[in-house]
Amino acid sequence: MKNVIKFPKQQELYQTLNDLPQQTRVELVEMLNHSLADAVDLSTQMKQAHWNVKGPSFIGLHKLFDEVHEGVESYVDSIAERLVQLGGIAEGTARMASSRTKLEEYPLDQKDGMAHATSVSKALSAFGKEARLSIEKASELKDADTADLFTEISRGIDKWLWFVESHTQTVK
User: Cα–Cα distance between 23 and 71 in angstroms, integer?
Assistant: First the structure.
């Protein structure tokens, strides 16, 4: 029987001297935990591609997917640390991430390098879109620090997307 993860509707926060209003921090922690789930999912998708890529571009893509994974892992850590700074609890287990992620499931039938590059590009693009939505939400909540964090993440994801997507693009 599978354990069901239940998330609180409004998470209680640890006491902090952070001057953001408590309700703002509650909303930010909820948003950050959703982003954490997406980041954990994206990280594992990068390893899935890294482990299973085949074909003439194997070594280049194998190394690239591992580099992307390492970059995404730094975002996982930054997101989790930010939400804890705000008094929240980082909900970052694999089960929690799978219950919350907005990313599409990574296709298991991928074999050749170009198929993996396309799937990785789609995952990076979706995560980048969510990061930009988080910038807007954090800005609306007047939290420049969280908005800045997601600006950094968005910029990094766009760079990784460029690196991966370049394998699938041709000049006409």
Answer: 31
